[in-house]
Specification:
This protein has eight helices and 18 strands. The chain is an alpha+beta fold.
Length: 374
């Protein structure tokens, strides 16, 4: 099984500057070993220092924090077929039965392959985040690659980190040999450990900083982005102003095209001998002659019919239209007052009305009206 291994009170963390496809900077801190940090550039060691020279967090770096090994318990699991959220929930239930921590203070994560669960306290997580503000919190044994055929051991001063197929943690002279059994042990060199550390930081198998502890990304506008947004806003304003101007120009062009087409059609109708600029006026005059004077038959007769329909007990007996635009209408009612109401309604509709004398016919008043539209 994966063992919980003490690591005194040392503190470890990694810092990686964020650039595409490149590990720019890693800082590994072991406060009790005087090996404070190691800088790597694209996987190569470029500098080393102690805790006193540890720089403050840079906003353009990705920081991976490696907590004390005795603060994180690793356990073997088999959640490879579950989504991350469900795997964490299952691991939390399993860890709650084994840990001495208060259930409310328990924080659990599962490795990317679903084969290892890590549990720690929420109190410790809060403290690590307050002290280092990392992007990733990675348990120390994950700095080493897991081998199925042997146990990997890294020696860092007086500290040994162990990782195998069923073993991960810190070296213990009594417990570790019992857990390894006959499995071969391979002690990696310092150079190999630097490479393993760089690879683990670039692609961490686990990140304890999730859920309520997930890092909140702060949105910062770059100056060039602000300038670009400003130019886009200006371009959008110009386009917005150009749209009605372009639409007006297109409408004017279409209107001119229709007017030219109308003049050509009018010239065809009245004859090619008439100049094009006089064709529309000549066609209007011909249409007026066909329609008749005044408002024309259609408009005048329509207004008369509306007036008759609105007057009770009144009906038309005759209707004759003359070329001068005058409409002669014969109307019959039950009494003379209804004839007067009909005339009033016609005049309200804009018609000129002249009436003849009312003559009785079969006991009903009959009148002839001369109506002309305006």
């Amino acid at each position: 099984m994966l063992a919980r291994c003490p690591w005194s009170s040392s503190v470890a963390h990694l810092v990686i500057q964020n650039e595409p496809a490149k590990v720019n900077q890693i800082e590994l801190i072991l406060s009790d070993l005087h090996l404070a940090w190691v800088h790597l550039d694209d996987g190569d060691v470029v500098a080393r220092g102690d805790a006193a020279t540890l720089a403050a967090r840079s906003p353009d770096r990705t920081r991976v924090f490696v907590p004390p090994i005795d603060a994180v318990v690793l356990s073997p699991v088999d959640f490879g077929d579950l989504p991350p959220a469900q795997a964490r929930a299952a691991a939390r239930l399993a860890a709650a039965d084994e840990t001495l921590l208060d259930g409310a203070d328990l924080h659990v994560d599962v490795s990317a392959d679903g084969l290892t669960a890590a549990s720690t306290s929420r109190t410790a997580m809060t403290q690590w985040i307050a002290d280092y503000d990392p992007d990733v919190i990675l348990p120390a044994p994950f700095l080493l690659p897991r081998r199925d055929d042997n146990v990997q051991v890294a020696v860092l001063g007086a500290l040994k980190i162990v990782r195998g197929q069923q073993l991960a943690g810190g070296w213990d002279d009594i417990i570790t040999p019992m857990l390894m059994g006959e499995t071969p042990v391979s002690t990696i060199s310092a150079a190999d450990f630097d490479q393993a550390m760089a690879a683990a930081a670039a692609n961490p198998e686990m990140n304890l900083r999730h859920g309520e502890f997930e890092r909140r990304t702060r949105f910062v506008l770059d100056r060039k982005v602000v300038q670009l947004m400003g130019w886009l806003a200006v371009a959008l304003l110009i386009i917005t102003l150009l749209i009605p101007l372009i639409s007006t120009a297109r409408l004017n062009q279409q209107s001119n095209t229709l007017e030219a087409t109308g003049r050509t059609s009018a010239q065809t109708a009245v004859g090619a001998s008439v100049p094009e600029d006089q064709a529309l006026a000549r066609l209007d005059a011909r249409l007026a002659a066909l329609r008749g004077g005044g408002a024309g038959f259609v408009r005048t007769s329509t207004a008369v019919n509306l007036a008759v329909q609105a007057t009770p007990n009144v009906e038309l007996t005759t209707m004759t239209f003359s070329p001068d635009g005058q409409l002669r209408v014969g109307a019959r009612a039950t009494k003379a007052e209804e004839i007067g109401a009909l005339i009033a309604r016609m005049r309200a509709l804009g018609l000129d009305v002249n009436r003849s004398a009312i003559n009785p016919a079969q006991g009903q008043p009959v009148v002839e009206l001369k109506v002309k539209g305006q």
